[in-house]
């Protein structure tokens, strides 16, 4: 089951990259906030249908949970807006790796300290190695963008 959940998370990450690339294009044409509005509107509609047809009944409702837990819904707004802006300027690969770097760093802090009601999973040298490797990957992917820009600027213009 763990392998399946990891595979499912990888698929979810792939969808986020596709979404970022599409939203970057859309946002450049219709505006960042209109693009974000469309994303959340369609997402709300699809989620409402999924709740209606597939969500089992729960003893606790959204009105019964601690109110701070509802704030998680707001975290998607800055992500979408930032990605629509970033993909247009730095490309889908750099923006996605930068997001993953931020996710990894914050999730390790959450794990280590058991923040937000999560079980504590203490920091280790292998986790530090993962962050360092991802930071190096971010550097190389960003650097390759710079190399590509220089190469394309130096290339002769063809008509």
Features:
globular; single chain; mainly alpha
Structure, explained:
The chain has 5 helices and no strands. With 159 residues, the protein is mostly helical. The mean pLDDT is 91. The chain is globular, with a radius of gyration of 19 Å. It is 75% helix and 0% strand.
Give the termini separation.
Answer: 56 Å
Whole-number mean pLDDT: 91
Structural class: mainly alpha
Low-pLDDT parts are none
Largest sheet: none
Give me the Rg, rounded. 19 Å
Strand content: under 5%
Oligomer: single chain
What is the molecular shape? globular
- Measured as a percent range, the helix fraction is over 70%
Secondary-structure element pattern, one letter each: HHHHH
| Counted beta strands | 0
Our count of helices gives 5
What's the SSE blueprint?
Blueprint: H1 2-30, H2 32-54, H3 76-90, H4 92-113, H5 125-154
Helix pairs in contact: 1-2, 1-3, 2-3, 3-4, 4-5
Précis, in short:
With 159 residues, the chain is mostly helical. Helix content is 75%, strand content 0%. Helix 1 (2-30) packs antiparallel against helix 2, helix 3 packs antiparallel against helix 4 (92-113) and helix 4 packs antiparallel against helix 5.
